């Protein structure tokens, strides 16, 4: 028997969430499948999201895997290329590339082929991460518009506060102003902007997290948006301990029983991708019943409170997140976001499509 931990990926939920995104916007959909499709498995996710007009990711090797698997949609490399050698691969596999720096334009100048590349010029409008500063857009576009290696240009930006009350107004206004003089396709919206700000939809929307059934907003649940959870991380109880008052559990003894307790030991730890920082009180389901983490998360195990679940025992099913327990709730308790938990799923956890 393998260790009882497993992640289930609900493919129909992925398809459903894509429909939710497509119903919210008339723009074309660039499904973001970076980071192994947020931990869900690249090809598995791409198949379920096949109705999208495009895929966005980071790794050239992943883009090649997609093409080799027969996907003919647009594929966008969100950080573009990193070396001159990448460029011929990009052309051979017909990949679209973000260009965010003059160094990338220089590499293009040295590229021997002609009119083969589709470019997404990234404009920095406030994130201050990747992108040309507003004052450099004219120059960059001048170079690219008639560049011998460029076939097509889309203008894009990325929002820093689309999920928060600050919103997108300032960045949207700046982007509109900067892109107005050019008759080029435009792309701005991540999941949060897609759901909340129709004015950002433009030609291409770029949903990520919502496709995987998690809400991009702290104060709105996925269920309220009509999204379905895709990944369920499940394991089983492999031991039960009875604690007397004053006894502790796990490393450092950070949890101390005040009364007699029953503790379940679950085959799941931080080496599986469960966050080590999840404190006592983090929600968990045992046989579908809500209970919580006790003490520190170990590398391969964690401990849960069974005191009020007398029927739970070795072999009981434990849901760490997913169906019945939104990943956002677990993330919130652990002081992080759903994105980190989903894409942090470790390779040693077997994934099963359902
Ligand atoms: C990751 C990413 C997205 C998707 O963001 P979500 O919040 O997951 O919807 C969109 N655009 C870019 C440039 C990204 O890097």
From TrEMBL:
* Assigned keywords, A-Z: Isomerase, Pyridoxal phosphate
GO BP annotations of the record are:
D-alanine biosynthetic process
Residues where substrate binds? 129, 299
| Enzyme Commission numbers on file | 5.1.1.1
Q: Where is the Alanine racemase C-terminal domain?
A: 230-354
**Pfam families from the UniProt entry:** Ala_racemase_C, Ala_racemase_N
PANTHER family registered for this protein in UniProt: ALANINE RACEMASE, ALANINE RACEMASE, CATABOLIC-RELATED
Q: What is the protein name stated in its UniProt record?
A: Alanine racemase
Instruction: Give the organism, scientific name.
Output: Candidatus Nitrotoga fabula
Which taxonomic lineage does the organism of this UniProt entry have?
Bacteria, Pseudomonadati, Pseudomonadota, Betaproteobacteria, Nitrosomonadales
């Amino acid at each position: 028997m393998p260790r009882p931990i497993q992640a289930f990926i609900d493919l129909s939920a992925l398809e459903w969430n894509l429909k939710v995104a497509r119903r919210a916007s008339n723009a074309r959909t660039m499904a973001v499948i970076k980071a192994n499709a947020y931990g869900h498995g690249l090809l598995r996710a791409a198949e379920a999201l096949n109705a999208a007009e495009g895929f966005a990711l980071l790794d050239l090797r992943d883009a090649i895997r997609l093409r080799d698997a027969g996907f003919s949609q647009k594929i966008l490399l969100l950080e573009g290329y990193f070396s001159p050698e990448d460029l011929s691969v990009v052309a051979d596999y017909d990949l679209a590339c973000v260009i965010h720096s003059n160094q990338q334009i220089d590499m293009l100048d040295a590229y021997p082929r002609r009119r083969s590349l589709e470019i997404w010029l990234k404009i920095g409008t406030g994130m201050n991460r990747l992108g040309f500063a507003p004052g450099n857009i004219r120059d960059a576009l001048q170079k690219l518009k008639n560049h011998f290696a460029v076939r097509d240009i889309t203008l894009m930006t990325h929002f820093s506060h689309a999920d928060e009350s600050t919103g997108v107004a300032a960045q949207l206004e700046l982007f509109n102003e900067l892109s107005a003089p050019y008759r080029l396709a435009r792309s701005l919206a991540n999941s949060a902007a897609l759901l909340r700000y129709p004015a950002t939809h433009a030609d291409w929307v770029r949903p990520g997290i919502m496709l995987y059934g998690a809400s991009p907003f702290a104060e709105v649940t996925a269920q309220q948006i009509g999204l379905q959870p895709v990944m369920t991380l499940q394991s089983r109880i492999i031991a039960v301990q009875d604690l007397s008052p004053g006894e502790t559990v796990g490393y450092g003894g950070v949890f101390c029983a005040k009364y007699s307790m029953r503790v379940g030991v679950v085959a799941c730890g931080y080496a599986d991708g469960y966050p080590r920082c999840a404190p006592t009180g983090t929600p968990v389901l045992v046989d579908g019943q809500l209970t919580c983490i006790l003490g520190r998360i170990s590398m391969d195990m964690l401990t849960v409170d069974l005191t009020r679940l007398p029927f739970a025992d070795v072999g009981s099913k434990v849901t760490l997140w997913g169906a019945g327990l939104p990943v956002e709730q677990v993330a919130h308790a652990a002081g992080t976001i759903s994105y980190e938990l989903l894409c942090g799923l470790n390779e040693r956890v077997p994934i099963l499509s359902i």
